[in-house]
Amino acid sequence: MYFLTATFDLKTVTNFTINGQTVSLDATYNSNKSIQINGISPDVNGEVVINM
Considering its fold, how many domains does the chain have in total? Predict the structure, then answer.
């Protein structure tokens, strides 16, 4: 689960990608929204790569 917040008037969208699945969260004045990515599995090397 990811939570972000920012207290200024710029659009502050962050994309999180894990194993090709992307979710986005706009942190502008965020006080109660979060996102999550379900079904995360490691690759054959036992690794999970998180891109932001």
Answer: 1
